[in-house]
Design brief:
Strand order of the largest sheet: 6-5-13-14-15-12-16
Number of helices: 15
Bound molecules: flavin-adenine dinucleotide
Structural class: alpha+beta
Strand content: 15-25%
Distance between the termini: 30 Å
Radius of gyration: 26 Å
Length: about 650
Amino acid sequence: MQFHLNGFHPGDPDIYKVDASRLDEDKDIPEEVDVLIVGCGPAGLTLAAQLSHFPEIKTRIIERKPGSLEKGQADGISCRSMEMFQAFGFATKIKREAHWINETTFWNPNPDNPDEIHRTGRIQDVEDGLSEMPHVILNQARVHDRYLEVMANSPTRLTPNYSTELIEATVDDSANEFPVSITLGRVGEEGPDKQKHVRAKYLVGCDGARSAVRRTMGKELRGDKANQAWGVMDVLIDTNFPDIRLKSLIKSGGEGNIIIIPREGGHLVRIYVEMDALSKEQEVVLSDVKVEDLIAAANRILNPYSIDVKSVAWWSIYEVGHRLTDKFDNVPVEKISEQIPRIFISGDACHTHSAKAGQGMNVSMGDSFNLGWKLVSVLLGRSKPDLLHSYSEERKVVAQDLIDFDHEWSRIIGGPAQLASADKPTPEFQKYFVEHGRYTAGLSVKYKPSLITGASDWQHLATGFDIGMRLHSAPVVRLIDAKPMELGEIVTADGRWRLIIFADAADPLDQTSRFAALSDYLSMNQDSPILRHTPGDADFDSIFDVCAVFQQHHRELDAMQMPELYRPRKGALGLRDHEKTFSRDPKRSDVFSLRGIDRDQGCMVVVRPDQYVSTILPLDAFDDLAGFFDGFMLAAKN
Ligand code: FAD
């Protein structure tokens, strides 16, 4: 972590110096903003946290509720979301507070006594090597708190405007640079005289399943409206059920199904109770269900075990369909070549699905992380505005996959239990769960070739970094201080691109090596993307962070001797950044072997600001590299 670059920074390094332009700024919503975000759920807060680090961008976030969430809603945090939290700097805090899902168990009716359940499987939850991050469980509200903290400590000191709701929005593309006109209201204060009118460059609706922003675009969620309903309760219990601190999927003989999810802080447990069996057999109407009904159902399903609920922290009946809207921005497909998106929706505003796969919060945050860097690039004049079309294109595919997965998973998990037989020794729900482990970890997203995702021509140079997928971290050692670390740690949520140069086997100081030629090209050639797209008065690594990883033992190399590119002078004092060169870790796995990197040729791995691999190129593919960035970036005005 670097925090003395511009002079000694006393105190908590997570608290940034406030940007001078923000010192006198009114916390109220000004009449003109660059980005207005609606909704302080996981989608809205991910976007706000990212934008809050750019004082040049005037961002506001509004929320209808009077304050931040305290309990309830989602709790599953996938490995992929943890990787993203690492980029925001709070993964360690989450790891400490959350409950870790290490193993998952499966329970079915006991064939010798079908009224009772017995354990039929116990598996490792996340397969080895899938991610450096664990799968954890934490109250959604605490994730909100972390984002709010990032925003409050950022140079813009961004805080939400609560009790404020979006009423209406329109776009006039012929208007000045603020084409979105927005009407806001104060909750509980009605009448046009109480309304406020704001103009924005971009409006982002992170306002949940009943999104008003989506409505203003004339779009709706389509799909099954009524899915199976599940009762959910967060409870403090006494129990003799042995797997109470493991995630457990339980199917009973005739009483229905439950999912047990151990929660943070010890003692607390979330129990999802399938409502279909309850409502059919007990003839209960959903709106009449009480928490006592959920507790009684859980006890019937758990037989011969039982729970004694001492306290109910939160409970609800969660009933959602598998629904999706056709586009995540306001530009009709036929107008893509002539119109730039001005309104976006993200998270549950675009897609809804059951809670059973634990994806709601994760996919919503993933949507906004995808959109955030694109808005930053366009608003700061780094990229052409048509980059913004890629948000809907990329994320709609992810949402459709989620809905397809959830459909199937709901059918399997909600279906009746099947007793084990010789030809089917493993129950279907356990088999499906294992087969889709990568999916639920959030690690199967793969963006298709596009302006920002290259083709697979050079994939063979690094077979373990899939083009279009998130950068799969691996152990490395930093040269300057011999710190063992994860390669993924270098990609922080700062909107920069990473060029990770995996050097060929030659001595990096050999001036005739391909590594040396590439380093010269990147730092000195006028066609180099760095020179073309970085403003002359900005730090040399302000748009592209170039790092190198070497095959030699770190003690054989001298960081101080590396080309200037990997130790640029920057900041107010012109100090050198020595933290850009790495080597394989001699004590842990060798990154070159682990990620299938061609040792003779080396390669360049181009990583997007949201941690996805854009392309892989040979070390001498100078023109291809320049052409890739010219496709969507603008030359810097120098
Ligand atoms: P949300 O978290 O829904 O956030 C939207 C925000 O926008 C809200 O804070 C809302 O108040 C605000 N808003 C809405 N309209 C306006 C407006 N016009 N102006 C200003 N603000 C507005 N997932 C699970 O996995 N398990 C669960 O048990 C579970 N239970 C849930 C219970 C409830 C009551 C809800 C609403 C959701 C639940 N979810 C659950 C879903 C999960 O919380 C969502 O998938 C996730 O929060 C999606 O994040 P989001 O930011 O897209 O939307």
